[in-house]
Fold:
Amino acid sequence: MGGREATMVLLDENGIRCDGRKVDEPRRIMIKAGGLKNADGSAYIEFGENKILVGVFGPRDVHPKHMSNTDTGILRVRYHMEPFSVGERKNPAPSRREIEISKVIKEALEPAVMLEKFPRTAVDVYIEVLQADGGTRCAALSAASVALADAGIPMRDMVAAIAAGKVADTVILDVNNEEDQAGQADMPIGYMPSVEKITLLQLDGVLTPEEYKKCVEVGVNGCKIVYDLQKKALNDKYFGSGED
Ligand code: ADP
Structure:
């Protein structure tokens, strides 16, 4: 965050960003429900240059048994980045970053999933990042919500996610990799539009109170765009051409 801005034009005099987008324009988003025949539910998302596959398994027995909870089900999330997903090969050993993002996504999904409906069992969410370009936690969270719905897991709502941020003292929607690295702030937001609840909010960088409010507003509006595409993905699979 910060530091390299001088060498890179993140916002030109016409308000156009380094990848040609306007300040409030998300990247191209494509979400597909289903696709993995051995999973109980699955989804694939392309979010700009990010490509992420999610498989959901369960509810199923917990081993070892003492890890289970007699009152409620448990959600387990593994976010994994392929070594080839970034320009310079990523070390295949689990990184602190992957452990953090797994935890963040699990905590963002928990308010959405009706875990109390399946005590003693676990739902496993496996996230495979095939290609990364900034914003993978948001794209993965959005795809995981679709995969959970595809698995028939009872949910209060789907969590839709996108990041707001700040470059060249301007609030932007959907921070890409260059903007994440050279910009001033990155704020990933996860939001359940029907319930109107934020389940993920992180902030890397510095914002004034006004910019903070603007980022939340811009981010929540962006989540609504993602939400429509999540619903469309499920509609296409279950009420569409019937290819899947
Ligand atoms: P997010 O992907 O949610 O934005 P970060 O802000 O931690 O999470 O990462 C931003 C981007 O940095 C990633 O999307 C990816 O493109 C890149 N990145 C992450 N880890 C590595 C790595 N080990 N090597 C190269 N690039 C990486």
Observations:
- The first strand starts at residue 29 and ends at 33.
- The CA atoms of residues 65 and 162 lie 36 Å apart.
- Residues 86, 88, 90, 97, 132-137, 177, 180 surround adenosine-5'-diphosphate (CB under 6 Å).
